[in-house]
Amino acid sequence: MGVITGVCILSYYSVVAGWATGYLYKTIIGTFRGEVTWNHSERIFSSFAANPVEVLICFFLVIGLTTFVISRGVKGGIERWSKILMPLLFGLIIFLAIRALTLPGAGTGISFYLKPDFSKLNVNVFFFAVGQAFFSLSLGMGTMMTYGSYISRHDNLVTSAGWVCFSTTLVAFLAGIAIFPTLFATPGLNPGEFKAGTGLMFQAFPLIISKIPGGYIFGVLFFILLLVAALTSTISLLEVPTAFLVDEHSWSRKKAATFIGLLAFLLGIPSELSNAGLLFLPGWE
Known about the structure:
Low-confidence stretches: none
Radius of gyration: 20 Å
Order of helices and strands: HHHHHHHHHHH
Number of domains: 1
Distance between the termini: 26 Å
């Protein structure tokens, strides 16, 4: 179940990672420069998500890069790229958090983010939080067991697990500091009116980019950060089924990574094309 779960999550998680790739490109070429309204941003996202060729190319790029890293093995692949991606992730998110705190009106966003409203606490919120914690820590999908099998006998499992929990929480905390002050500092934007949805981030941030000082640089860095964060997750997800085929069925690492990568790509095509309205009728969701 852990192996199957990893493949299934990889198939749709990479779809969103592909969106980050597409939006990084759009930001670099200046799509969000100038005045961008909420309706304009919605149309850009809808047009992007409804373009099957564009989104499938972005999806394939993410799967291809993830497969390449995993096929290189633990030392030459995961370990080597983690040494590049993780410091880059922390560096970018710290930079963006500092930048967000210097924006006018950032204090309102920090208050909204960190001041608890205990009247909102109920059983549903508790289970949502636990579910998010399980997903964030990759519990129940074989990732921790697979990575745990690669560490030395001299490493302390409790300490290592503690560092994983701490670093994951720290990144999420810093991400909130980078996002909420920026939202509240953006003129004409009321975060309380946003409706949750898959594409919310891709609709809200172009609006922010167009309205804050240095928005172009801020936007490029944000989508680089988003893509780096997504890749560290897709790499972890692909490693589980790859290690299973290598250890249990004596496949070569390259063959196993390529096979699972292609399988995840094929499984993810319905998720990708459903946003273009090609597979499911409106209202089915």
